[in-house]
Amino acid sequence: MTILSSSGGERVERWVQADFLGHDAEAGLGIEARGPGQESRPQNWKLSPSDFAFLWEYCKRCFHLKVARQFGPPRTPFPGIFGVIDKLMNEFFNGLPSSDVDPSLPPGTVAYGESWVESEPITIPGHTSTCFLRGKFDSVIRFEDGSYGVIDFKTTNTRGHHLPLYSRQLHAYAYALENAAPGKLALSPVTRLGLVCVQPMDISRDAEGRISYIGEVRWIEFNRDDDGFMRFLGEVMDVLDLPEPPEASPSCALCKYRDDARRTQL
Ligand code: SF4
């Protein structure tokens, strides 16, 4: 689950950076990272679905460095309270009928809580390297017709323009479930993908003085677009197969700090 601020460009940027600076449990370093002099050797890149939203969008250089060079951005402190919210959301929805997620969903039950998935190696036309997907989804619904729905919980601005970015992450979980590596969780077919977005709107206090946050809940569903997802993986492979990392984002304070440190030798 990801926490994003609800307003203010600067705050959004801060949260966006927090989102890809290593807080997601599935985020990790490529296990077959490429070092200097290894540029031409085909790889099997490990891709974390949670990197497909903000890390990819914000800076291709950081994405390349993290996956291909095992040089990820520094981790920042992540308040434990967000882990508590994740756990509460999962526990609340686990076992509920799909209609409690959203009335538009077919009959079913929230049957799986947080679970790891891993795909078989994926071959992308035009690339000698392959990739595989490894990550942890929030929840999966088992529908009565035998199909599945992958859902992710977000505490965020429920109208945020950033929300479509999560479609790739959900597609990645669906792909990994339908094309699971041997011994990994396999569920198929995955017919629905969506976000349960909660935006805190109000606060109340009970007789014992306890505080409750009141939130608007919005279900945001994404249509399966497997061709589009494969095209996206092709773009990812294009970046990973570059002999050198792409240019840094000129507005990134962290890279400016690194450049200043090099220049001043401090
Ligand atoms: S500009 Fe530099 S530090 Fe900033 S996101 Fe890109 S590679 Fe990472």
What does this structure look like?
This protein is an alpha/beta fold. The protein has one domain (about 1-265): Alpha-Beta Complex (Lambda Exonuclease, Chain A). The chain has 8 helices and 10 strands. Strand 5 and strand 6 (about 130-135) form a beta hairpin. The structure holds iron/sulfur cluster. Iron/sulfur cluster binds near residues 248 and 255.
SSE arrangement:
Blueprint (H helix, E strand, L loop, with lengths): L1 E2 L5 H15 L20 E4 L6 H5 L1 H9 L11 H14 L4 H4 L6 E5 L2 E4 L3 E2 L6 E8 L1 E5 L4 E8 L10 H13 L11 E16 L5 E12 L3 H15 L12 H12 L2
Parallel strand pairs: 1-8, 2-6, 8-9
Antiparallel strand pairs: 3-7, 4-6, 5-6, 7-8, 9-10
The structure holds iron/sulfur cluster (SF4).
Provide keyphrases for this structure:
266 residues; alpha/beta; Lambda Exonuclease, Chain A; four-stranded mixed beta sheet; disordered N terminus; binds iron/sulfur cluster
Residue windows where pLDDT falls under 50 for at least 5 positions: 1-25, 27-33
CATH class: Alpha Beta
Please outline the major beta sheet: 6 strands, mixed
User: DSSP helix count?
Assistant: 8
Could you say which structural class the secondary elements and strand pairing correspond to? alpha/beta
State the CATH architecture.
Alpha-Beta Complex
Present as ligands are: iron/sulfur cluster
What is the first-to-last residue Cα distance?
37 Å
3D shape: globular
Rg, nearest Å: 20 Å
Whole-number average pLDDT?
Answer: 85
* Oligomer classification: single chain
- The run of helices and strands is EHEHHHHEEEEEEHEEHH
Tell me the domain tally. Answer: 1
Strand percentage lies at 15-25%
- Using DSSP, what is the number of strands? 10
